[in-house]
Predict the structure.
Amino acid sequence: MAMAGLYRRLLPSPPAIDFASSEGKQLFIEAIQNGTMEGFYRLISYFQTQSEPAYCGLASLSVVLNALAIDPGRKWKGPWRWFDESMLDCCEPLETVKAKGISFGKLVCLAHCAGAKVEAYRTNQSTIDEFRQHVIKCTTTDDCHLISSYHRGTFKQTGTGHFSPIGGYHAGRDMALILDVARFKYPPHWVPLTLLWEAMNNIDVTTGQRRGFMLISRPHREPGLLYTLSCKHESWASIAKYLVDDVPLLLKSEDVKDVNRLLYVVFTSLPSNFGEFIKWVAEVRRQEDGRGNLSQEEKGRLAVKEEVLKQVQEIGLFKHVAEFLSSANSCCKNMSILSQENYLPRVAASICCQGAEILAGRSGTSGGYCCSETCVRCMKTNDDKPITLVSGTVVDGKTEQGLDVLVPSSQMKPSCGCGPSSHIGMYPAGNDVLTALLLALPPETWSGIKEEKLLQEIHALVSSENLPTLLQEEVLHLRRQLYLLKRCQENKVDEDLGAPLS
């Protein structure tokens, strides 16, 4: 019986020039000599074909993020942290992208959420001369890459909207090299830059907005090393709305006289699933890796996490939050994140199950894992610095595996051994997590406070300008995440491409 199918497409030339043709090779050589192929080498080293017909945006972003060596902060498969299309699901469900593709605005949102530094422009927000300068900037260095959103019809190609990275530029011919991620359809090809601009200067019928381009570069430090916001739980939209919209209204309507009352107003109205929204990040490794000591990379990341935790616990707002929670447990029992019963072994069991899920490449199936035992102990590194280490045994009904969790802890003097008593308060718990989130709320959150003295006190407590550098970066990352999640919840990411608020 016959089976229909497609094997590639003939590249319409002109206007495009096949990268592997004689003319394409000559353009490549001349561009190298002119210094406008510097970004090509890293892009081609991490280049991939989109795994689904509608995944061009996700594939383009994966290529660029890996080329910039941005650490995802979470594992892909096995022990490996790596950006893959399947990891880019925080701004649009993968099933939706698979069926309909992704809009320009939501891809920009994904790039921000992944920790990249992003500048995005629609064609009505820029000019062809400015675009040419951006292309030159990103092709004469390897620390910035450009993704273009364009309509294939302008190049006489089949299909409509498409995303691909720009791999190079030929100044003499004013041509850009499109590294087409749909390699099953068209090979990489050179196109006139003026025609590429025309292809971008096209309205996406889905959003009613023009297409455009984004410049993606690496931040000077990976954000979100200790705290992160999660949109995995279905309640994230209502929680983002509560934090951004409802909290300012509550503070405006209530007669708030002091910090303790302010915390009462904010915390007692938290949505029930709030504990699923903000997380602290621990690193997991298999015990069978056979490493008794920490690698330099692991020690470096853990040291930064511990410094962030220390800085949180030293600020004035933390002291207010800790005092409030110690006296307010009776009214906040339904909030797991506020509970003082949140002992490390209990948290560790959950982390070990998450780790087993990630290491097995079975994301979203943690219900099948059970942590049969955990042990919290101290491990001395080469410099005699004590490290809090959780060892757990996880079973899934068929097999069991041992896991180690490297837990950031404050600089106290722990007594080593198994059990919660000697470790309470040393690791990230409700006090510091909520403190970090309060710091991350938009500055205008507090403007409705009527008591002038309290307003001044709160501004002094939450101002990011008064924070140490590491904590300031962590807080601003959380604030950007919250801003982006709120824009997604309102479906406004295609209306505003500006960088998230600082």
Notes: The longest strand covers residues 370-380. The radius of gyration is 25 Å.
